[in-house]
Specification:
heterotetramer, A: 329 residues, alpha/beta, ten-stranded mixed β-sheet, B: alpha/beta, eight-stranded mixed β-sheet, three-stranded mixed β-sheet, 24% helix
């Protein structure tokens, strides 16, 4: 098996490009998300993205806030109790970002259909409502009949809809633990990460912890993302910050509100990026930015016990550095 | 008695939830209503979230999100969206749900997507909204799949509209049998619990009428806060105040008091 | 939560009936399968069954051998290296059992579609071949166009097929571990047990071990079958014997061949049932029949380490007996 | 040299498997061929089974089944059939596979379902078979999904037929562009490895011809064991005997020697 460890800079350089169809592998808005990867995309100046997110998150909020997103497909664009996604909504209302709406269930099924390489998925939702009638891709057609066209059940003659399936160029998927080959364990709900890992042409894992493959052999039923479909593994503890990673850390409530507030205007977004996105060049600096006090606070999570069975297999930073050097040159 | 309108709403909504139901709950007031019901009168309630969190209760306060660690600390199962929204909701298996609404119309159709100066249905074009909201999320799935569901909304004239800007989640569409014709597996909204009262759909026309109002308001105020010509039940009555016991149980769920602040 | 423990007699009496659509929740032919449940169905004389099995197994082999199966839908009817299923094949070639063939992938998708309550599932397989053209339900039509009718992708105009989805009356699903409420962990591949548990109107779990719910709370990501969809839990160690249960026991090679050989004729099937199916009235007697030596041998499995993390939560027979008595009356 | 025909077949099939391929393997000879290839020349081969067993190697002998504990003792992942047969095979992602056949025709169509005195295509009726086989299993999925795959079959006249009784898994159907017209994502069978030789499809007609024969047979015998008028490659050659090294590696997989017995 191939050691697939890459630095976050390498992974973004190798697996993202302007104009790509990008998928941020997240749980739900406040949950696990490959946010550090999105920040690195901002640092490397990616633009004109077509983003497909099952659900919003601070990652898509940030990418849209800096003007990197031309188009987005989404089931839910907000940040739940943390409010509407200010940066994303600014991009949408200004006309910068075209937004195509579906239900959350529809997005899940569209990933499933993409993983199957199906031409379409039967639609029993997002029909007979404005998700069907309104299309950002065909704004002059209302009611639109091209976004979710009608199909007929050949067994009963009843009418249903048909969803386009999703096959993103790349998905950056946050996982709790991965081995260096790309086998991964997620704690907490998967949301659509299982289907997304199969639907995407390339997959980059962003892992809070790197574990020995022995951990996978002890818990093979937990390994829902497999090396067979993974192209690169990035080790990045607290990769979902300021969102949560069950078993490891809670969401940073204060920073969630603050970050979203800063996304409201272009100027504040730039100020935020200067301080929180571009102001670090290593994981050590990233951690220093968050600060020891904050790290300690969010790490005292009521879900910590979920990690207990796996701790003995966690690889140390030194080990990982060595393994990472092996993939160079 | 000392309680907020939101707490009142949560208790009234909770009273609508029956023991044993398989119920999908979103964050905020819906979760509060559901877990209040479970501790008050529905000990065998089976709540789950759209990410596939099963068997859990909030820890340390109301969750910030469906996936929040506060709801993930004592789950018996974590699955995924296909399972929760697909196998359990879109399939027609789930009994009940509680969803919110930025705008709701006389037939219980909900808008949570955006606010337009000129809505798409009026201009025949889909242009960017003046205000972008959140999109439908799982509410749209609930609206077509759950056997029945409850809508919670703030009772204001700009929210209780003759016709919403955008239908994110279907209610009874244009009333009568218009929903039935669509062939959805779910039965549609059972009630709208607002900050002022309880609205039910007429069995024939499917238009929502006022069944009961809260003690701190009047029928006139409710009518004034409704954009359509709200019909009033012949048996309309004031809803009983929450009991001390109910409030105590509610606050045991909302331990951080996030919904004790007046909005 | 409700304690759902039932004895195997009660579970079969309450959840099976003549003429039902029955699903045996198995992995693959040699893998985990609720075989003990099928034996109890034979004891209680169930007949005219419509069996939907993603894959064969000794359970359907036995049920068909005794003449209890009128119709079966299947992706694969054999016993892999143990050979063709002699009892099932006898029932099929004699015309007693109508057999409708699909691919294994098709069966998986049909369960998925049933779990979604979809009208149909897009078919990219089992079309343009005899699985489409031949139907046991419409034997006079060749090529048959009712079994897997044609549909058109509304996006491209290309032609595909459509599968009927599956919603069995009852699935008896073998799992490694369950709690008394019906939360369950499977070790080894799930095959279609996850989708089947959601597609079936009623679900009975047949568990090799009963564990405390604390085990589920420690490993919620492993709990793929949930109490929310389960109606009854049967505790029956070695329930898959003579097939295997990863983590607990290997297949009984000798008995696999022997049993299949006995299914070849009606007379031998009856003799087999007298000795191995009807000749016990308790789990103790069932174990005695298998015999200590055999139990010891099959329990020495190379997969035993897979059970290690969960052993501390296993409930004792005494505990379970007490819990079972609580559900009576 | 001392080896069985089945061992020879497994080695020849193994030689067709390339390093790095994502390959789905059934029990018996296919698994033997695959794991032989991995230990011989394809160390980065990525084998999986249709139940979703990943990252494992057989322990204690060839598995009795896909789900057998012999293949489950050192897996890195267990998923399910939707994943393995759907996401990886039907999607077109898997590179290769090895499948068996009870009957195979000149266009590589396979029958593993049943034997009829009067096959359905002949009588226009679907009646019970005289002999029921296993059905298609995952082979049908492989035949439409995998980029390419290998067929293994015992070379006898009653098995290498002009037209099979029942097409369980499609090959090139009626030859030419007849498969292409069906729009399957997979490319079809790359070779038939029989007990006597290697057959390849003609690039245009898609009819299988003899490319090479095994050292213990002759072209005449191969033709005599084939029901259709088998074409012979102009460059037809005898296949080299397995090396001692190859046999050693093969037998390290088949430790119980289940395929060392002559059939």
């Amino acid at each position: 098996m191939q050691n697939k460890l890459l630095s976050i800079e390498e992974a973004v350089a190798d697996y993202t490009w302007d104009g790509m169809t990008y998928c941020n592998g997240a749980a739900l808005p406040v949950g696990s998300c490959s946010i550090a990867f999105g920040k690195e995309m901002v640092k490397q100046g990616r633009k004109n993205l077509n983003v497909i997110c099952h659900c919003g998150s601070q990652q898509i909020n940030l990418l849209a806030a800096v003007g990197a997103v031309d188009r987005v497909e989404v089931g839910f664009s907000g940040l739940e109790v943390y409010g509407f996604a200010a940066g994303l909504n600014r991009a949408v209302t200004s006309g910068k970002t075209r937004m195509e709406d579906y239900s959350n269930g529809a997005m899940a099924l569209r990933f499933f259909g993409g993983a199957m390489n199906w031409p379409f998925v039967p639609a029993t939702v997002s029909i007979h409502n404005d998700q069907q009638w309104c299309s950002a891709d065909y704004p002059d057609e209302y009611p639109c009949n091209r976004k979710i066209p009608e199909i007929t059940d050949p067994f009963t003659g009843k009418k249903y809809g048909a969803f386009r399936t999703i096959r993103p160029d790349v998905a950056a998927i946050h996982v709790t633990m991965a081995d260096i080959y790309g086998n991964a364990i997620m704690l907490g709900t998967e949301w659509n990460r299982f289907e997304m890992s199969r639907a995407s042409k390339k997959v980059v894992l962003v892992a809070d912890q790197i574990v020995h493959t022995d951990c996978m052999r002890q818990y093979p039923n937990l390994v829902r993302i497999i090396s067979e479909v993974v192209d690169a593994v990035v080790y990045w503890p607290y990769a979902a910050w300021p969102q949560a990673s069950p078993g490891l850390y809670d969401s940073d409530e204060e920073h969630m509100f603050y970050m979203n507030k800063m996304m409201k205007t272009e100027a504040d977004t730039e100020a935020y990026c200067d301080q929180w996105v571009k102001n670090w060049n290593s994981h050590e600096e990233y951690m220093a930015l968050i600060g020891d006090e904050k790290i300690e606070k969010i790490s005292k999570t009521a879900t910590a016990f979920l990690m207990d069975p796996y701790r003995k297999w966690i690889r140390s930073d030194d080990e990982i550095r060595e393994l990472q050097n092996m993939t160079k040159g | 008695m000392d309680y907020t309108k939101q707490e009142f709403m949560a208790i009234i909504t909770g009273r609508e939830i029956k023991d044993g139901e398989l119920i999908i709950l979103g964050v905020g007031l819906p979760m509060l209503a559901g877990y209040f019901a479970r501790s008050n009168h529905a000990p065998n309630l089976r709540p789950f979230t759209e990410g596939g969190v099963y068997g859990s209760s909030p820890v340390g306060g109301l969750p910030w999100g469906i996936e929040c660690n506060r709801i993930s600390a004592n789950a018996t199962s974590f699955t995924n969206a296909i399972d929760a929204l697909g196998f359990l909701v879109l399939s027609g298996r789930a009994d009940n749900a509680v969803i919110g609404a930025a705008q709701v119309d006389k037939y219980g159709n909900i808008n949570t997507t955006g606010i337009w100066d000129e809505p798409p249905w009026k201009v025949g074009k889909y242009l960017p909204p003046r205000v972008r909201l959140n999109g439908s999320g799982g509410a749209s799935d609930i609206s077509v799949g759950c056997k029945s569901y409850l809508i919670m909304a703030s009772h204001e004239k700009r929210r209780f509209m003759e016709k919403v800007d955008y239908i994110s989640s279907v209610g009874f569409l244009t009333g009568g049998d218009s929903r039935e014709k669509c062939g959805f597996v779910g039965g549609g909204p059972a009630a709208i619990i607002s900050t002022l009262g309880i609205l039910r759909p007429d069995p024939q026309t499917k238009e929502f009428y006022l069944e009961a109002y809260f003690p701190f308001t009047t029928i006139e105020e409710v009518k004034a806060c409704t954009d359509w010509d709200l019909k009033i039940s012949q048996d309309v009555k004031a809803v009983h105040e929450p009991t001390i016991e109910e409030l105590k149980k509610l606050r045991a769920v909302d331990v951080t008091g996030s919904l004790r602040k007046e909005d």
